[in-house]
Amino acid sequence: MLVPERPAGRFSDAWRRCVGAGRFDLALRSDYRDSLALVQQEIGFQYIRQHGLLSDGAGIYQPYTRGGSPGLAYTFTYVDQIVDAYLALGVRPFIELGFTPAALGSGPQTVFWWQGNVTPPASPAEWAALVRTTITHLIDRYGLDEVRTWPIEVWNEPDLDVFWPAGDQDDYHRLYELTACTVKDVDASLQVGGPALSPGADAEWLKRFSAFIEDRAVPIDFVSRHAYTSGPSQPVPFGTYQTLMPAATLLDQFAAPRQELAGTALAGLPVHITEFSSSYRPDNPIHDTAFHAAYLAPVVVAAGDLVDSFSYWTFSDVFEEAGVPASMFHGGFGLLTHRQIKKPTFHLYSFISRLGRDVLASGESFVVTRDPAGHIAILAWAPVDHTGRSFVDGHRVRLSVPVGPGSSAFIARSSVGEEAGNARAAWAAMGRPASPRPRQVDALREAAEPVRTYRSVPVAGGRVELDLVLGRHEVTLVEVSPVVDETPPWSDDARLFGRAG
Amino acid sequence: MLVPERPAGRFSDAWRRCVGAGRFDLALRSDYRDSLALVQQEIGFQYIRQHGLLSDGAGIYQPYTRGGSPGLAYTFTYVDQIVDAYLALGVRPFIELGFTPAALGSGPQTVFWWQGNVTPPASPAEWAALVRTTITHLIDRYGLDEVRTWPIEVWNEPDLDVFWPAGDQDDYHRLYELTACTVKDVDASLQVGGPALSPGADAEWLKRFSAFIEDRAVPIDFVSRHAYTSGPSQPVPFGTYQTLMPAATLLDQFAAPRQELAGTALAGLPVHITEFSSSYRPDNPIHDTAFHAAYLAPVVVAAGDLVDSFSYWTFSDVFEEAGVPASMFHGGFGLLTHRQIKKPTFHLYSFISRLGRDVLASGESFVVTRDPAGHIAILAWAPVDHTGRSFVDGHRVRLSVPVGPGSSAFIARSSVGEEAGNARAAWAAMGRPASPRPRQVDALREAAEPVRTYRSVPVAGGRVELDLVLGRHEVTLVEVSPVVDETPPWSDDARLFGRAG
Amino acid sequence: MLVPERPAGRFSDAWRRCVGAGRFDLALRSDYRDSLALVQQEIGFQYIRQHGLLSDGAGIYQPYTRGGSPGLAYTFTYVDQIVDAYLALGVRPFIELGFTPAALGSGPQTVFWWQGNVTPPASPAEWAALVRTTITHLIDRYGLDEVRTWPIEVWNEPDLDVFWPAGDQDDYHRLYELTACTVKDVDASLQVGGPALSPGADAEWLKRFSAFIEDRAVPIDFVSRHAYTSGPSQPVPFGTYQTLMPAATLLDQFAAPRQELAGTALAGLPVHITEFSSSYRPDNPIHDTAFHAAYLAPVVVAAGDLVDSFSYWTFSDVFEEAGVPASMFHGGFGLLTHRQIKKPTFHLYSFISRLGRDVLASGESFVVTRDPAGHIAILAWAPVDHTGRSFVDGHRVRLSVPVGPGSSAFIARSSVGEEAGNARAAWAAMGRPASPRPRQVDALREAAEPVRTYRSVPVAGGRVELDLVLGRHEVTLVEVSPVVDETPPWSDDARLFGRAG
Amino acid sequence: MLVPERPAGRFSDAWRRCVGAGRFDLALRSDYRDSLALVQQEIGFQYIRQHGLLSDGAGIYQPYTRGGSPGLAYTFTYVDQIVDAYLALGVRPFIELGFTPAALGSGPQTVFWWQGNVTPPASPAEWAALVRTTITHLIDRYGLDEVRTWPIEVWNEPDLDVFWPAGDQDDYHRLYELTACTVKDVDASLQVGGPALSPGADAEWLKRFSAFIEDRAVPIDFVSRHAYTSGPSQPVPFGTYQTLMPAATLLDQFAAPRQELAGTALAGLPVHITEFSSSYRPDNPIHDTAFHAAYLAPVVVAAGDLVDSFSYWTFSDVFEEAGVPASMFHGGFGLLTHRQIKKPTFHLYSFISRLGRDVLASGESFVVTRDPAGHIAILAWAPVDHTGRSFVDGHRVRLSVPVGPGSSAFIARSSVGEEAGNARAAWAAMGRPASPRPRQVDALREAAEPVRTYRSVPVAGGRVELDLVLGRHEVTLVEVSPVVDETPPWSDDARLFGRAG
Asked: Which chain B residues in 439-468 lie under 8 Å from chain C, judged by CB atoms?
């Protein structure tokens, strides 16, 4: 392909807007913090979203008895420690208001190994007070200018029994209205939204929600939903296998809210995909594979044109929805495993973080970008078969790239795939140790790094010709810089061993 | 007092043998790790003991179902992360085997906010397998030479209903025998012991235990019990007040096991006090006070002559037995608060860690030590009234200390007390903010530092005369070093402003 | 004094605009870097100025011979390492163009132990090429937007024989013109200036310079000079004593350029004091004293109204103009000694860095400031006698400070003086060890910290009454914050020891 | 080759005994310290040797005048900072006593860009006092037990005019005798030796030295010399090309002292090769190449059987003997360039540091080792042509390696060579930037890493069959560990995409 010299458009950075994480109080963990620091250094997300801010582990809602009378304390010991740490790491909370403190729940039903109570609040007034106190506290500590940049989402996947067992859609509408009005009553400039629908929600759900919002003039600043591509669970101990749909169905899911809301009062609102991945299971080994990066590559590259954010679920395997993970590689959602081993999908994101501001060209398996200083960065990937029945090896991408004057260009190529940057494969070769020894962890850390090559290529007519061959499940970043040749005239590698005598 | 030149004996370092901590999986927390690193750097403990190794939060015991049949996996994901971190920080586990995984319990009773199941194992065989697998795993990973240095204690305070609700002493005997035999069957060189009695146990409990051990020739390598001095709880929300007994009663409690076991088969065994403090409540504000350091000073100085270890309960306020702490200063057990603010008792330990190898003299309110290089280090403290009804101010300690030849000595004095090194007092002056702002945390961190003074004193006859005056609840470290005067002859501070013209 | 509630004006931050340093290549040193990192963290300067960018140690100018013919290479190996490090530490170069590479000098004369050649360039064309190449390289690497914020000063103290031995003022004028025109020819938006006059220059020097500039329409963006208050040297080995003038004479020196240039073409230009201190000697022990901080306090507080910057000479004792320093405290210029022991003048700057944006009031020995969040910060100092013949002890500052509603305020006070924050005094008590042992360095580090006290005071009528008593040579920072009382009703320190039985 | 199961002998760790460095005071540099920390972490040398301890840059010898009379101060400001840093990094000084302080020299001759005075001391008494004071100071600070482990070498290459311009061999003998006797007079347990001969010394030099020692019964604890293989210099600006001799001539040079001293009084002494490399020039690009690692591999593997130490000259390019290096890759001696880019020879050492305690087998191009835990580590290298006229590609090493029971082994292979781990090649492709931009430095850092591959291989009869193919100038580390297969029975990668529907 003859890559044009003029940009076709901007490369959206919606991909970095948000990333998901395990429950709120897991942010107190050392591994979580180290992982987030690494992710921020090499990728750099802007917001982080997670469940459980209002659940018991975070400890906000603390009833007590004194002199026989009940009292209530709001405690921000952990919340402040966590949000302080986020801001120090350059990431902000994308607040999810949920779930219910056990003492405020209307029933005993819980979700997850960590037992988040998901019943509707027994007392709307106490819920509203909890929301108001929490948001007010955050503003007092961090300032309104800061907090008004944090989206506030009401609950999680209320269309699913597992998250909203005792209620129905109308109950969610009431919860949403109460919560949104409470938030706006604290300050009208705060951003509130929902409903964080699951991918399984039928198309009418959102329309009914929109009608409700419009009827009652309820505040709303954004619409949110989730997207996954996996089929029914095929459980094994500590794991799940599932079929997958083509990756492009993710883009369809991303696009759905705008389509469903066309013509409604919510039509113009920002749309946030507050969770997405292939499988929605925290124990599906597909997350750990090289396939996964190649599968998601075209989605992450293209989705910024469809939505305002799409939040990869999640940045780290420090995550306990299914209990304490039984093995280093256990199919967790994370970009990183425990102890911060990078998975191939981590590199997909780190590669994308090095793309330039402008898109020069894009195709089925590549995108070519340029930054204002003239550096070219290309992401390319091998097409994948979502059924795993066949695979592509030796996929070729031929590009004629404009690099300007000069006689040569420096090419740096970084790749992950089945053969390189694939810690899971090294771990399998080790015998799949559940809890690797320190020297094994060191080897996994090294095995997780991309393979990198460097070379000089000639420039002809202001262009370099690239013929990229991609291995199975390969995702590759190719960076092209014009060479400024500083070689002095006396430098001569032919003389390295001395002139002949 | 004329301090003699010849040592009266060695200063025991039993005080640094062990320290307590919150439940096992809290060691995954960032604040816990940072706190432990600080404690190790400025104090340096050798072992660390905590509850919950076998409880669900640490995740070892994981039953599953496959094809309709039950299975069981042992998972060391978290255990390995934690023990790896301990060894990297220079501290080793003092293993407490407890409590029961919920799925292995014989009933639903739990202890603490974090709901540790404390019922006897439903299956002795499965308990033995759990113990065997855990110890074997540790040996595989860390080596037998390492693990045989780790004491292994069976259960915690089995004389109390709260920790052993369904059982009686005979039940504990059976658990002890099964566990100890299992440990020794893994390797006979491992150290096993118990019974980690509470201070409230009657004197006959230990004798019955001893008789049982002797009768059945059960393995035992050490005897353990706990010691506290507080009276009945006077609860308030998120806190407890209590009367205290004199600190010397701690020494009586430390001495009790040897007295009670005199003449029995267990008479010669090492005795470990595996928990001690004033109050046994994690929410008694006395722990945070300057009083507390002065109260415990004579105990920590003297106890090394009575027992093989006495483990301060605990090094950090990262501790959730009563829930998520509702305030920065909440009466937690820790030497450090959340976010690592040093309490006065932290400094008691850091001062003691700077004492020398040999004791030259000691008294009611001081000890004088010397290290092989000749540096003198003195710990002194103001006597306290455990009822708080009166207090000592201006307590004097007069010492004539041998420092050898030379004409002057350099004195460095570090003190904490009501007036200095008292972060709780600064926090009270701030209005007791539950979750201090960053600049308040900075101020608390500074307020927590000892006041330090430096001066030169004359040496006469190889001695310096010290007249130490101690304020209320003061604990002070005085370090004395002979001065080697390197002042050149032309140095003259009288000339600092130039000679007169 | 009744401090008014409305600001009297802004507190200028010209004090932080620039700081001095040892010769350019000393910035490769580890101690220098650690010191700069500490200074940036606790104070935060914006620019750094030093000699020797073009001298041989920095290695830019490298003549060579090839095939019998001379050639010339410009090498930025060290320059880039240093400037990279500066920008990473948040500080920018205030470029001083000097001195002459030895191979470009017109003679052998050097200045300092490190032998900087200070003769006029033998070839004006080569000098211009050196300047052009250096500035162009910096722009290529750091960008024009960055480099145009860096002032570029031509030479250093050309009125002194020691720095300009072979020339006279006209020679400097020619050097200035050549250099300034060369810089502007690279880019007209760059800032160039001079003449970095010594304090001893007569008042006519600057007028002649101004006339020359005007006559020939030479570019100039700022005027610079230096200021010191010390009298003739009274040398001793490795040291110098000197008389001092009153500190206020520094303010006179700062004000002089504007006065001397009034009515000339240079009248409106920014004025930078590119070096100031008491003594101009790198071995006068006055720099290390508590006196020094109190002496300079009124200067640093007031000078921002007179000039655009005044650069303390220097931030660190890593400085070799008089050779390798023979002792830890040797009268170096630094805010920090070798190994980063803080001198009292360091704290003067760190205290000032905590003052607020607005000045509420000021007096002979204090300034009261407030930041937008309402925190009050007061700097006060004991007046000093510059002859050292008398001293002030117990100086009182009484202030009635507005803090707004509330019933109490939190006061944090930090002080240095003869008794506290005085590492030199502790070092003297140690016997003035030339190269202290590690444990002595630790003690010095602690001795260098300010004494800090914390208390709560009542607020009456929206004000707190402060009666500050200052010891000899004390400089003190008092921070006042309104208390938000969060004490719960059940909190009662009277119950700490339990209710009476 | 059928590698035997029983060790053929121990693998000597003489290779890690010592490493060389630039002049003493360069150890104050930040880049030097960071480089040493990296080298210690990934390789771990025991001693470090360098010139210039007594030269002016280190600042020990400081004459002064007072009241018209001369005086002399010894200053250890820098020495202590440097040695403190070494010990903190786990490395000890191999002391070289040299050169002469300028003020103590008998003439003006200097060596190197940094102008070390190399004339014999004008006053033997002052030289002896300097040596005595320096050694005594080190003992006072670090303890005799420590300092007696530090070899003390007298001067450097006294057989060369450039280092010993005014003297002859007899003069050196006198210097040696005076110095050695002075050292032994401080403490007889100190180790002193010499003569640090250059490779060009004729065979009689050492015999004459030995005769002198024997005649006068001068103390000596070790013999030292240097070894290089390069031919005459072919200078270009900022660089030198040279022919090379075969690497095996290094082993001949290492062996020479024992041969030459056979039958003399010095016959049984330890022999230290206190400098070795290919070229003795700090600007020969051969040092930076992949060739260099392969060239030296057989030397570093074999030399431990010949001598007690052989010190690679040097660990870092922070080195100024030929001035400020004009380019990132300039042919410096270092294992690391400026800014710590790893050269291939760095990896040769890091690979060797991972070899096991016992040698199982060795050959022309490999060595097979095993550690006590049973891990096999193999170093192999492609044979090289020292004339560069031909090269080996596809060199094969076939090994049948014993790994014990089990059905598979995990193989980790790390390689550097022309294609990988070759930062100089990447730099050449960039256009040889003299001072690379930050993003280029990042790319160089990545390009400097070895390529690493991981796989599982079958074990048959307790052995794995390795068929290693080595590219041009490749050096490779192959680590073989038996696999303990923990794969659970339900794990099945064939199910990754879900069962067929």
From this structure: 443, 446-447, 449, 451-452, 454-456
SS3 category, A381: strand
Active site residue A157: yes
- Under an 8 A CB cutoff, do C410 and B388 touch? no
* pLDDT per 10-residue tile (average), chain B, 501 residues: 93 98 98 98 98 98 95 98 98 97 96 96 98 98 98 97 90 98 98 96 93 97 98 96 97 97 95 98 98 98 97 98 97 98 98 98 97 95 93 92 93 96 97 96 97 96 97 97 95 89 43
Pairing assessment for the beta strands A376-381 and A451-458 based on DSSP bridges: unpaired
Task: Give me the pLDDT at residue D203, please.
Answer: 84
Token pair, residue A320, equals: 């306990």
Q: Which fold has domain B12-352?
A: TIM Barrel (3.20.20)
Cβ–Cβ under 8 Å, residues C414 and C451? yes
Buried/exposed B104-125: b ≥16 CB within 10 Å, e otherwise: bbeeebbbbebbbbbbbbeeee
D102 vs A: CB within 8 A: no
Taking CB atoms and an 8 Å cutoff, what residues of chain B touch C414?
446
* Residue D215 CB partners (closer than 8 Å, separation 6+): none
Beta-carbon separation of B338 and A30 below 8 A? no
CB C169 within 8 A of CB C205: yes
Q: Determine whether domain D358-482 maps to CATH 3.30.559.10.
A: no
Structure confidence at residue C492 (pLDDT): 95
Grouping H, G, I as helix, E, B as strand and the rest as coil, residue D342 is strand
Do the domains at B12-352 and B358-482 have one common CATH topology?
Answer: no
Q: Which residues of chain C have pLDDT under 50?
A: 501
Task: Tell me if D45 sits within 8 A of D393, measured CB to CB.
Answer: no
Model pLDDT, residue D500: 55
pLDDT of amino acid C131 = 98
Smallest CA-to-CA distance from B490 within C234, C22, D425 is with C234
How does pLDDT run across A18-67, given as a tens digit for each residue?
Answer: 999 999 999 999 999 999 999 999 999 999 999 999 999 999 999 999 98
The helix or strand, by DSSP H or E, that contains position C49, with its residue range, turns out to be strand C47-49
Residues of B in contact with A30 (CB under 8 A): 28-30, 32-33, 85
Q: What is the 3-state secondary structure (H, E, C) of A169-214?
A: HHHHHHHHHHHHHHHHHHCCCCCEEEEEECCCCCHHHHHHHHHHHH
pTM for the whole structure = 0.96
Domain boundaries, chain C: 12-352, 358-482
Cα separation, B456 vs C240, whole angstroms: 26
**Token pair 């200095």 is at which residue?**
B420
Asked if B489 is an interface residue toward chain C (Cβ–Cβ < 8 A), one would say no
pLDDT higher than 90, residue A452: yes
**Torsional sign, CA A273, A278, A284, A286:** negative
CB nearest to A30's CB, from B30, B325, B327 = B30
Minimal C-alpha gap between A424 and chain B (Å): 17
Q: CB of B9 within 8 Å of any CB in chain A?
A: no
Q: Which amino acid is at B102?
A: A
* Per-residue model confidence (pLDDT) at position C501: 43
Is the CB of B437 less than 8 angstroms away from the CB of A141?
Answer: yes
Contacts of C487 in chain B (CB under 8 A): 428, 431-432
C409-C413-C416 Cα angle (round to 5): 170
Supply A1's token pair. Answer: 């392909």
Residue A78 burial class via C-beta count within 10 angstroms: exposed 0-12, middle 13-18, buried 19 and up: buried
Q: Say yes or no: B146 contacts chain A, CB-CB below 8 A.
A: no
Contact B81 A338 (CB under 8 A): yes
- Locate A61 and state its tokens: 């809602």
Give the tens place of pLDDT for each residue, A273-290: 999 999 999 999 999 999
| Residues in chain D where the model's pLDDT stays below 50 | 501
